[in-house]
């Protein structure tokens, strides 16, 4: 069954937040990370819309969520407030939330600071470097990426970023046999256009974010840390495991790599539903 999408926008301080919604039922908020936007969750949303009202959005400064003024360094409290405003506007909360990568960081901030708005948060591979026993190597790597961006440009910097994160190998298993649909091409073009903003204003402040572990351990909302079945050894997998240890929980394994919600959308949705149902 196909579920049509509806689009909308919510005014928040300093920005307009674009969102897409489909399906009906309890609210599920999908939060993308880095330079990505709502489009990365197209396949996953299609497998959730038969039982949930699925909302995906573009974080402020990315794609269709425009800033009122000039860009500034990204702030997780601001991102968390934006997510809270979306849930309050759309109603039918508290919401189930999936955040992936930098979106998982936003979800962690949302759950810690606006707990009444969240039923269960699944934080999939949050790249919180400060959770590592010794993050000095990774922090130095990010500084090198940032310096490369200013000296050599976005393409060279992103090559370093992908290699450091282990993401340059992700996606090899999904070699397309036919041209991607127009919607996927449009998403890719938007993401490419967001890279400068991410490198200039997101990479450094977001990587240094430390979630409020004490608040997250409170028991409400329920916090589930997800990791990819194929990402062992990668930075975001290691930070996810580190956070789960601090929370006293076991990480939940999802199929695929850091973007398994795309390559394995159907199975990813099944595991996600089970995680939500256990709350």
From TrEMBL:
Keywords, alphabetical: Hydrolase
This protein's record includes keyword Isomerase: no
GO molecular function, one term: triacylglycerol lipase activity
Hydrolase found in the keyword field: yes
Domain AB hydrolase-1: 26-139
Single Gene Ontology BP annotation: glycerolipid catabolic process
Gene3D superfamilies: alpha/beta hydrolase
Protein's name according to its UniProt entry: Alpha/beta hydrolase
Organism: Phyllobacterium myrsinacearum
